[in-house]
Amino acid sequence: MEAVRAQRLQPGVGTGPRGARPGLTGAPAGLGPTPAAGSGLGPGLGLPPPPPPLGLQGPPAPPGPGAGAVPGPPAVLREAVEAVVRSFAKHTQGYGRVNVVEALQEFWQMKQSRGAELRNGALVLYEMVPAASPPYVCYVTLPGGSCFGSFQFCPTKAEARRSAAKIALMNSVFNEHPSRRITDDFIEKSVSEALASFNGNREEADNPNTGIGAFRFMLESNKGKSMLEFQELMTVFQLLHWNGSLKAMRERQCSRQEVLAHYSHRALDDDIRNQMALDWVNREQNIPGALSRELAATERELDEARLAGKELRFHKEKKDILLLAAGQLGSAHPSGC
Asked: According to a count of CB atoms within 10 Å of the terminal CB, is the N or C end of the chain lower?
């Protein structure tokens, strides 16, 4: 019985007609502070979107004239980042120029030394996007899994690394503020906003079989955690929705409670990525061009979110899954897909 239940809860959509269903690009990506109708985590759960890690993220500036122009970050974002970096430097290293790459690493080592539970240690990871000329792009992944990227025009690889470290340091510092913790007051406010947005009633919030009730259950299960920690959990459900996995689980008669209980305690791992990549291989074989279209849309979303200083893991994981699928197709057809 347990083996059957585990099979029903697998993240893969499967082959056949369901496997050929295109992805749901953009549907779960809205992470505004107030849940908007239709922007939840899909028909499988019907959850409102999570709150943003930081409420200081505006849209990227429009591109300048000329081909290949790169949009810059909003002035308020640049100023906020520099202010946080200066403040952090003053309180930890005294006045003077701060090495943000070292500061970010020291911040997370300090958190670990003070008892923070970091399953994979305190190491901050950087990833440069291969490029032969500027602008250079760098991504940084924090120990908990949150991801940020260089948000400025970076003429050198070192500057791209510093830019990514700056936005990650700002979010890391802000994440420590009491207002970024999930408390009883925060839960009540979030549930009330969700009820208003979805035209729900109070009985729905107390019923775990409804989308609002499931949303409340997830918040209460993560009481005391920070916004970044909650966002890391929600990324798994966003990917399951985008891939069509939540709907497939519902068709396999999985209850909302089963899905929540299973994936609330399951980290995003290579098994989930590989099964989703296989789904996209099947989609591409059934609908030629589906993979390239989804990848192009995902890369646009990733760039827009990066230049706006937003948390990027959902977009980055989507891109990595799609590239993994493209690689599998390429190895199966060496002469071209």
From this structure: N
The whole-angstrom separation of Cα 74 and Cα 36 is 24
Ordered mean pLDDT values, 10 residues apiece, the chain (337 residues): 67 54 35 32 46 40 36 59 67 64 91 84 94 97 94 95 94 86 90 84 78 83 88 89 91 86 86 96 96 97 95 96 94 51
Closest-CA residue to 210 (of 223, 194, 226, 224)? 194
CA angle 225, 230, 234 (to 5 degrees): 160
Q: Which pairs count as long-range contacts for 283-289, CB under 8 Å and 24+ apart, including other chains?
A: 283/19, 283/20, 283/21, 283/22, 283/23, 284/325, 284/329, 284/337, 286/19, 286/20, 287/20, 287/22
Beta-carbon contacts of 255 under 8 Å, excluding residues fewer than 6 positions away, are: none
Partners of residue 148 on adjacent β-strands: 140
Rg, C-alpha atoms of the chain: 21
Is the separation of the CB atoms in 13 and 245 below 8 Å?
yes
CA–CA separation, 258 vs 8, rounded Å? 10
- 224 exposure class (CB count in 10 Å sphere: 0-12, 13-18, 19+): exposed
Beta strands 125-128 and 138-141 are antiparallel
Ramachandran region, residue 64 (left: φ > 0; alpha: ψ -120 to 50; beta: rest): beta
